[in-house]
Amino acid sequence: MKLPLSEQFQHDIRRNPFNVALLEGLPALGLPDCWLVAGCLFQTVWNLQTGAEPTAQINDYDVFYFDGEDLSAEAEKAVQARVAEAFRHLPIRIETMNQARVHHWYEGYFHEPYSALANSEEGISRYLVACTCVGAQARSAQSLALSAPYGLDDLYAGILRPNWVDRKELYQRKCESYAARWPHLRIVPA
Fold first, then answer.
1. 61 pairs with which residues across the strands?
2. Using CA atoms, how far apart are residues 16 and 14, in angstroms rounded to an integer?
3. What is the mean pLDDT of each run of 10 residues along the chain (190 residues)?
4. How far apart are CA 135 and CA 64, in angstroms?
5. Cβ(94)–Cβ(61) below 8 Å
6. N or C: which end of the chain has fewer CB within 10 A?
7. CB under 8 Å to 143, separation ≥6 — which residues?
């Protein structure tokens, strides 16, 4: 019997032991609105679809949290250090970002405006490729909360569809990079 995609997704991302370690360990840090997001999740699915090891070709593991109380770069660096220390035993790179402060640096880095976010899930929804907008957070030892604002159908069908049509060149480069590593993916032009 075929599982609903949300259950299949939970099963698949748990086949990556680093995802499991992060999902189990992040709640102990008490970070507000904390999610494991993006590449470590969708790339695990693509790895499994192509018969690769679940951890293959994953460059980093992204963690979002939302702390509107302190928007300083120093506070974010302190949280990044706490996360790095908590998971120092894992042979992975972890990128931790406060979604409450993205609008402070985004325009200077990407030369485009970026409106303030209300929570981490809104940040998840803003990745360039719609099927990559995914996140998970542990609710209990057995239960995950999922964020997939555009659903999971395209992820499992291998369809790369633009989320931001005004970022065509960056979208195309990102899609080509994904398709070079996972050849079963199909790119929808922006």
1. 94
2. 5
3. 89 97 97 97 98 97 97 97 98 98 90 92 96 93 90 98 84 95 95
4. 9
5. yes
6. N
7. none
Spatial contact of 142 and 148, defined as CB atoms under 8 Å apart: no
Q: Report whether 129 contacts 156 (CB < 8 A).
A: no
Beta strand 144-147 with 135-138 is: antiparallel
User: Which region, left, alpha or beta, applies to residue 59 given φ > 0 means left and ψ of -120 to 50 means alpha?
Assistant: alpha
Tokens, residue 166:
């005004």
pTM of the full structure? 0.94
Contacts of 20 (CB under 8 A, 6+ apart): 14
Identity (one letter) of the amino acid at 167? R
- Beta strands 61-65 and 135-138: pairing type? unpaired
Helix ranges (DSSP H) in 14-152: 17-25, 39-49, 73-86, 102-110, 120-124
How far is Cα 113 from Cα 104, in angstroms, rounded to an integer? 10
